């Protein structure tokens, strides 16, 4: 008897294998080496990116300078990065580092900033008291401000305070415009903040003198 010619012809791929039909592909189940069926759509643990986790600290690159050093063969060009990190509360840090590439310099500066993190005292959404700090030629004056004032500062000071929980501040730069020195001066000013409960007022000074006299007697 003649064979039935109504059957669909077999489709062969370029590699010489039979092409799978759509119906067979839907029913086919992929199995692993152990023979266990593999579920589609499930994310593997090793494929979960670290970026999916929320960052504890935000970072801002304040400045990148190109520096050079003269050596025997000529000039050696490098990059210097100034980076600040903070948790938008009362932790902040500043780091400065050099590298042959901008990315490398920023990564090194970020690592240094994490090592140099400080925790400072706050009075609500402002600093505890007025303070003036000097680092080499930089001279920074910072004053507490009433709610709703905002951050009245410019450049480096605004970048650093913006990563803290301070929302109201008045600042003025009185000395050098060197960004690195200004950054360190701001950090020193925040580090020196004393909470209101520990202030030495006239009453506390008088009480301490009386206590010292009694002990002397």
Question: What are the SSEs and their pairings?
Answer:
Layout: H1 22-27, E1 58-71, E2 74-86, E3 91-99, H2 102-115, E4 118-119, E5 131-135, E6 138-144, E7 151-152, H3 156-161, E8 169-173, H4 179-191, H5 202-216
Parallel strand pairs: 7-8
Antiparallel strand pairs: 1-2, 2-3, 3-4, 5-6, 6-8
Describe this structure in words.
- The protein is of the alpha+beta class.
- The chain has a domain at 58-195: Ribosomal Protein S5, domain 2.
- Helices cover 25% and strands 26% of the residues.
- The protein has helices spanning 22-27, 102-115, 156-161, 179-191, 202-216; strands at 58-71, 74-86, 91-99, 118-119, 131-135, 138-144, 151-152, 169-173.
- The strands form two sheets. The chain has a four-stranded antiparallel sheet, sandwiched between helices.
- The model has no long low-confidence stretch (mean pLDDT 82).
Overall mean pLDDT stands at 82
Low-pLDDT runs of 5+ residues are: none
The tally of helices reads 5
Topology as H/E string? HEEEHEEEEHEHH
- Rough shape? extended
Q: Strand arrangement, largest sheet?
A: 1-2-3-4
CATH class descriptor of the domain at 58-195: Alpha Beta
**CATH overall fold name of the domain at 58-195:** Ribosomal Protein S5, domain 2
Ends apart, CA distance between termini: 132 Å
Can you count the beta strands? 8
Q: What share of residues are in beta strands?
A: 25-35%
Instruction: Using the 3D structure, state the CATH architecture of the domain at 58-195.
Output: 2-Layer Sandwich
* Helix-residue proportion: 10-25%
Summarize the main sheet.
4 strands, antiparallel
Q: State Rg.
A: 32 Å
User: Could you say which structural class the secondary elements and strand pairing correspond to?
Assistant: alpha+beta
């Amino acid at each position: 008897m003649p064979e039935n010619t109504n059957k669909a012809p077999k489709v062969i791929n370029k590699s010489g294998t039979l092409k799978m039909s759509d119906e067979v592909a839907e029913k086919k189940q992929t199995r692993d080496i152990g023979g266990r069926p593999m579920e589609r759509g499930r994310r593997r643990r090793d494929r979960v990116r670290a970026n999916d986790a929320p960052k504890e600290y935000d970072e801002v690159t304040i400045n990148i300078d190109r520096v050079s050093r003269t050596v025997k063969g000529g000039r050696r060009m490098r990059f210097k990065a100034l980076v600040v990190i903070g948790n938008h509360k009362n932790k902040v840090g500043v780091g400065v580092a050099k590298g042959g590439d901008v990315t490398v310099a920023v990564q090194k500066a970020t690592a240094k900033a994490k090592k140099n993190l400080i925790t400072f005292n706050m009075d609500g959404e402002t600093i505890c008291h007025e303070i003036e700090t000097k680092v080499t030629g930089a001279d920074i004056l910072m004053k507490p401000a009433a709610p709703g004032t905002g951050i009245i500062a410019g450049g480096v000071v605004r970048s650093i305070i913006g990563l803290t929980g301070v929302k109201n501040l008045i600042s003025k730069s009185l000395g050098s415009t060197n960004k690195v020195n200004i950054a360190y001066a701001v950090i020193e000013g925040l580090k020196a903040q004393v909470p209101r409960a520990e202030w030495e007022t006239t009453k506390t000074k008088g009480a301490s003198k009386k206590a010292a006299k009694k002990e002397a007697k």
